[in-house]
Amino acid sequence: MKNKYDNEMKLEFISKSCNEAFARITVAAFASQLDPTIEELSDIKTSVSEIVTNSIIHAYDTSDGIIKIISKIIDNTIVIEISDTGKGIEDVELARKPLYTSKAELERSGMGFTIVENFMDELKIESIVGLGTKITMKKKISKIDQEFERDTDLCT
Amino acid sequence: MNERYIEKDKLLILEITEEIDHHMAEKLRRDADYEIQRRNPKRVILDFNSVSFMDSAGIGMVIGRYKTAAMLGAKMEMINVKPNIRRIFEMTGVLKIIPITTLNIEEVSNEE
Predict the structure, then answer these.
(1) Secondary structure of chain A in the HEC alphabet?
(2) B residues 73..92 contacting A (CB < 8 A)
(3) Cβ separation of B59 and A109 shorter than 8 Å?
(4) What is the ipTM, given to two decimal places?
(5) Do B22 and A53 touch (CB under 8 A)?
């Protein structure tokens, strides 16, 4: 059977802030099979951290919920879907705006989505108030040399 | 976070040793504000030498400490910022308010 994706993983965890580091490190470990540069890996870690933090402080706020991450590798692109079943985003366009935050009291800068837009190639935000939010981000990892091709073959 | 205060220069060096995300920001905020208020320095330096990761929580944390310092009449700067973190500060305009400078900490401690 030929899979639609070259590789895929799923991760679920409770919306505790100590899991922010766990989530970004796990996704970075999965992405590392594409042999990304240190900079690309750092972009992925930061982006995962931003989105997971949003789920924790906005979607679930004071309650605990489940955050789900599905990550796929297609050729040399990593796709990361992060979803929650929290309160949802009322105005997605407003949430995307630089410096907009609904949590200024937490010293949130309102730059989370702006950073993700800069660090990833694609950012899609789907949200239904009362049901939850799903974020999909994609990043193409630059191929460096022939050695890399042989390494990834080992994983298929 | 490690703290060093050089009395004769009224210089407070705060060396951040944690990854800066939303989870850690609250603790850093408390620790840094405590030191700034306790020492009442003229100059505050945030040393990023041991910081390997930062997300947007770091922006709020740094700007917040800048405000604490400014209220007490102190200037703030950052040193040893790694390229991945520097990009976040550049992208979000933080460097227009809080500059990245160079400071030889060994030299400063020799003068003590």
Answers:
(1) CCCCCCEEEEEEEECCCCHHHHHHHHHHHHHHHHCCCHHHHHHHHHHHHHHHHHHHHHHCCCCCCEEEEEEEEECCEEEEEEEECCCCCCCHHHHHCCCCCCCHHHCCCCCHHHHHHHHCCEEEEEEECCCEEEEEEEEECCCCCHHHHHHHHCCC
(2) 83-84, 88, 91-92
(3) yes
(4) 0.90
(5) yes
**Which CATH number is B2-111's, of 3.40.50.2000, 3.30.750.24, 3.40.50.10840, 3.90.1150.10?**
3.30.750.24
pLDDT in tens, B49-103: 999 999 999 999 999 999 999 999 999 999 999 999 999 999 999 999 999 999 8
pLDDT digits (tens, 9 = 90+) for A115-132: 999 999 999 999 999 999
Q: Chain A residue with minimal CA distance to B91?
A: A115
Are A107 and B63 an interchain contact pair (Cβ–Cβ within 8 Å)? yes
Question: At the fourth CATH level, which superfamily is domain A7-149?
Answer: Histidine kinase-like ATPase, C-terminal domain (3.30.565.10)
Chain A residues touching B21 at Cβ < 8 A: 17, 20-21, 49, 53
pTM for the full model? 0.91
